[in-house]
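Quick start: what a row looks like.
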Amino acid sequence: MSEPIAASKTRLRARVRERLAGVPVAERHAMSERIVERLEALAEVRRAAHLLLHRSLPSEVNLEALLAAALARGQRVLAPRIDGPRLRFVPIDYDTSRRRSTLGVLEPESGAAADLSGDRGESVAVVPGLAFDERGGRLGRGGGHYDRFLREARQTGHLVAIGVAFDTQIVERVPRADTDEPVDRIVTESRVIEARAPR
């Protein structure tokens, strides 16, 4: 990644973190509920052969209601676990034990990673991010885990990546390096954004 792009990403992360810090907790919960309603209205989310869901950080969109609804439907839900530079996705249920990762995210403590390669059914990954743009550009926390995962998953199977964010996290342009993977759409509390950029 070039130095100008890296510096632009650092500045954007700081700006969006400041915006998020100004959102009251109650407002964040109410917006999360609306985002989950929009996600639940997407047929591809409800019918996904595998639904890939992360446990949210306090500043992120809370997805607990989506997790509960998916498990109640009998969907196969997978959660990410950091394994060195890679993300592995592990099947979970209500009783899955969690541990806190080096990034502070709750992840499955144990369990074998699912193999999504060549999956004939459609997998849907709900993807966190600090900022998104309307072309599908995504700014993560800097580890590159989701970028590597999305790139590999798209080469070996059918995967739809849906970013989740509050409206305040949508920016005009996310700086993008060659290794950055876009999402297919973004769901906020007010709309569903269809990404306009080719991969």
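That is the whole record. The CA atoms of residues 7 and 48 lie 37 Å apart. The radius of gyration is 16 Å.
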